[in-house]
Design brief:
The chain is mainly alpha-helical. The protein has one domain (5-92). It is built from 3 helices and no strands. The protein starts with 9 loop residues before the first helix and ends with a helix.
Amino acid sequence: ESIPEADIPLWKRARFTTPTSRYEVGESSIAAATAARQIRPTLTIADKCRADDKLIGRLRRERRYFRSVAITYAQEVAHSRDYCTRIIDYCQS
């Protein structure tokens, strides 16, 4: 006695289907990844130092930028407090 396909839940129906594979037998994703990794040239010490110097320069530029943003916000807060104090003094007089 066979169960009609409509009566089988979807999660069970997948068990009875034939799996399709995109890979050939014997092909390994690890071997493909290893081959891809070997294509990239190894960095020399000079290249690594140059990359480190670029990163350090970028971090220094970002630090200067965020410092200027923080100073701008602090000045804005100070001006807002001063303005608010003047308004309160004006309203109380």
